[in-house]
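Narrative of accomplishments. A recurring question from our advisory board has been how the design workflow behaves on a single, concrete structure rather than in aggregate. To address it, we present the structure tokens for one chain from the evaluation set, followed by the sequence designed for it. No filtering or post-editing was applied between the two.
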């Protein structure tokens, strides 16, 4: 597996679906990773409203069979804003810098769409039933869930300590370190971690050859 995108990519993409990946460890980080190659080309993979719906379904934040009304273009724009606000906060938190109040407000604005939403219905006997609306019934609700995940991460010091950006120079993957020791450096041992090991090994061999 290679996390890097092909050089020959035609940009902007027509659809980002083939380039989504799920190494973030939690929804907020997977969402931040939908803008790929942040270190180089800033490749947008939420290109269309169908991309957004498809991503939310793939992330299990919308039911797999969700086919609700088309997502307005405005919500796609707002979704990207939410994503970039999360990323600004992730980078600041990682650097130990103060968070940008505007980015925090953008995340906060989405929280009203998260959490429980009560629903009052009438059962067959005519009694009122106080229940809850389905967990994932709209894209806004799904984005609210992402915002809540980001807010939980950013607002909990023990979780802030596990925010990571992959240590590879040519990878911009954000991830949440769920390893027991909390010392994970690469988004994936199969790709970036392995590439780093191979490079280190080659460098050692070169040094040995030069020395001998
Ligand atoms: Zn990586």
């Amino acid at each position: 597996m290679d996390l890097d995108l092909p050089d020959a990519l035609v940009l902007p993409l027509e659809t980002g679906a083939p380039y989504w990946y799920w190494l973030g460890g939690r929804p907020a980080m997977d969402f931040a990773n939908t803008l790929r190659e942040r270190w180089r080309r800033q490749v947008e993979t939420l290109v269309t409203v169908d991309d957004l719906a498809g991503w939310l379904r793939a992330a299990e934040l919308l039911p797999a069979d969700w086919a609700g009304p088309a997502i307005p273009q405005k919500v796609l724009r707002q979704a990207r804003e939410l994503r970039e606000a999360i990323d600004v906060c992730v980078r600041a938190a990682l650097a130990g810098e103060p968070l940008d109040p505007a980015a925090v407000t953008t995340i906060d604005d989405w929280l009203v769409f998260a959490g429980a939403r009560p629903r009052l219905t009438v059962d067959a006997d005519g009694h009122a039933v106080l229940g809850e609306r389905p967990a994932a019934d709209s894209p806004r609700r799904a984005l609210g869930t992402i915002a809540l995940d980001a807010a939980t991460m950013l607002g909990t010091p023990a979780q802030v300590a596990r925010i990571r950006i992959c240590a590879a120079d040519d990878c911009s993957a954000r991830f949440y370190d769920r390893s027991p020791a909390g010392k994970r450096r690469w988004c994936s041992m199969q790709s970036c971690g392995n590439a780093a090991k191979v490079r280190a090994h080659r460098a050692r061999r070169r040094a040995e050859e030069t020395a001998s």
